[in-house]
Amino acid sequence: MTRPIVANISAAALRHNVSVVRQHAPHAHIMAAVKANAYGHDVALCAPVLAEAGVDAFAVATLEEAETLHDLRLERPVCLLGGLFDAKEVAVAAARGYLLVIHEQRQLLWLAMHAADAPLRLFIKVDTGMHRLGFAPDQLSALFAGLQRHPHWQVLGLMSHLARSDTPEDPFNRQQAGVFAAAVAHFGHCTAGQHTLANSGGVLALPFTHHHWIRPGLMLYGLSPFAGRNGAEIGLQPVLSWRSEVVAIRALAPGDWLGYGATWQAPAHCRVGVVAAGYGDGYPRHLGSGAPVTVAGQATRTLARVSMDMLFVDLTVVSAEIGASVVLMGAGGPSLESLAARLDTISYELGCRMQMRVPRQLVS
Question: Is the pTM of this model over 0.85?
Answer without folding.
Answer: yes
